[in-house]
């Protein structure tokens, strides 16, 4: 005889739970943590480089980089002045809370103000796996096209800020920014947005200012 | 160079992690009820969740082998994305590039459904 057992449990509840533990570790050390998500080539690493350089002497920054292979990105962040830990996911398409948990142990959190976690370049699943960061940032870029919020709604739903990178390419690429922003507005009303170029430096100061305020406010609380 | 952390050495998609979680949740609840075997699992997946049914089924057949959930049937209930316009009250299923309200064009919209991703129930046999 069979019997039905009602459950209603979120599939990724174990990951969510571990993410909370990670956040507690960050909180214990007073470190603000960010999750950077984007498609491959949107400019996550470039933005991290610019952020590390731009906030040099103001914030002590550590970086956890997730990639399927190589430590190229961690090397770049390190060269810019961050303490970097590389996670090679070995084919996995996203970071999860378990991977971040082991990476945290390699960082001396007490010597840091901010940890930036660079997720695997992918617009599909990283949003589903919480890592324990305080805020999530989606880095979009002009050459990707203006339809991305419509095609990957899940990614745009849960983030705290959207950075639109490579605006220096606007004259060369058909990109309807109003259409793009309308999609974001529906999916994530009022979300903080930045338009910038890591290449020319245009718009970077607004981002750096916002980020520094986030970290300072967090440390005050 | 950054310290190297080799986490998992083989290639896989996120559906493996997802399927492992499904198995863990189902077995835990079955054992709490002293069930001997799981025959069916009822999953609810929103349209905007990123999980592919076929991949879950593929991994399920492999990882459920040797457990009390071996050969259990996976039932997927898909939930369409549903949005509600806060300005004119229109409720609609977004299609392609019509995220904004199709009636008034407004963007003041709430997501009512489509992000579900949970195990609703299981059927078990032979309660002891």
How would you summarize the topology of this molecule?
The complex is a heterodimer of chains A (about 220) and B (about 130).
Chain A: E1 2-10, H1 13-29, E2 32-38, H2 44-54, E3 61-67, H3 72-80, E4 83-88, H4 97-104, E5 114-118, E6 135-141, H5 148-151, H6 153-157, E7 161-165, H7 177-187, E8 192-195, H8 204-220
Parallel strand pairs in A: 2-5, 2-6, 3-4, 3-5, 6-7, 7-8
Helix pairs in contact in A: 1-4, 2-3
Chain B: E1 3-6, H1 14-32, E2 37-46, H2 53-63, E3 73-79, E4 82-85, E5 91-92, E6 109-113, E7 117-125
Parallel strand pairs in B: 2-3
Antiparallel strand pairs in B: 2-7, 4-5, 4-6
Task: Describe the 3D structure.
- With 221 residues, chain A is of the alpha/beta class.
- Chain A has one domain (14-220): P-loop containing nucleotide triphosphate hydrolases (Rossmann fold, 3-Layer(aba) Sandwich).
- Chain A contains eight helices and eight strands; from the N terminus they run βαβαβαβαββααβαβα.
- In chain A, strand 3, helix 3 (72-80) and strand 4 form a beta-alpha-beta unit.
- In chain B, the strands form two sheets. A three-stranded mixed β-sheet of chain B has the order 3-2-7, covered by helices on one side. Chain B has a three-stranded antiparallel β-sheet with strand order 5-4-6, with no helix packed on it.
- Chain B has two helices and seven strands.
Task: Record keyword descriptors for this entry.
heterodimer; A: 221 residues; alpha/beta; Rossmann fold; seven-stranded parallel sheet; 8 helices; 8 strands; 23% strand; globular; B: 128 residues; hypothetical protein PF0899 fold; three-stranded mixed sheet; three-stranded antiparallel sheet; 2 helices; elongated
């Amino acid at each position: 005889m069979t019997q039905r057992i009602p459950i209603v449990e979120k599939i990724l509840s174990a990951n969510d739970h571990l993410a909370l533990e990670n956040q507690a570790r960050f909180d214990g050390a007073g470190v603000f943590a960010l999750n950077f998500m984007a498609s491959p080539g949107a400019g996550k690493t470039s933005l991290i480089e610019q952020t590390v350089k731009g906030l040099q002497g103001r914030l002590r920054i550590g970086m956890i980089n997730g990639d399927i292979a190589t430590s190229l990105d961690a090397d770049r962040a390190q060269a810019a002045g961050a303490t970097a830990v590389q996670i090679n996911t070995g084919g996995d398409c996203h970071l999860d809370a378990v991977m971040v948990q082991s990476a945290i142990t390699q960082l001396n959190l007490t010597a840091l103000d901010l940890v930036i976690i660079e997720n695997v370049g992918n617009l599909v699943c990283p949003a589903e796996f919480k890592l324990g960061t305080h805020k999530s940032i989606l880095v979009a870029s002009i050459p990707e096209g203006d339809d991305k919020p419509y095609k990957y709604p899940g990614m745009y739903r849960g983030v705290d800020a959207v950075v639109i990178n490579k605006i220096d390419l606007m004259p060369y690429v058909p990109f309807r920014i109003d259409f793009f922003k309308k999609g974001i507005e529906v999916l994530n009303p009022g979300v903080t947005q930045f338009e910038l170029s890591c290449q020319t430096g245009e718009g970077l100061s607004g981002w750096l200012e916002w980020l520094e305020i986030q970290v300072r406010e967090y440390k005050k609380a | 160079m950054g310290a190297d952390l080799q986490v998992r050495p083989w290639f896989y998609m996120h559906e493996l992690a997802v399927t492992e979680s499904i198995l863990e949740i189902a077995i835990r609840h079955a054992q709490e009820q002293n069930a001997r075997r799981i025959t069916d699992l009822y999953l609810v997946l929103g349209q905007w969740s990123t999980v592919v049914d076929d991949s879950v089924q593929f991994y399920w057949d492999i990882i459920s082998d040797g457990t009390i959930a071996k050969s259990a049937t996976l039932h997927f209930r898909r939930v369409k994305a549903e949005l509600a316009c806060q300005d004119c009250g229109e409720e609609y299923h977004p299609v392609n590039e019509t995220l904004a309200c199709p009636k008034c064009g407004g963007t003041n919209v709430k997501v009512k459904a489509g992000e579900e991703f949970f195990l609703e129930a299981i059927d078990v046999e032979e309660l002891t």
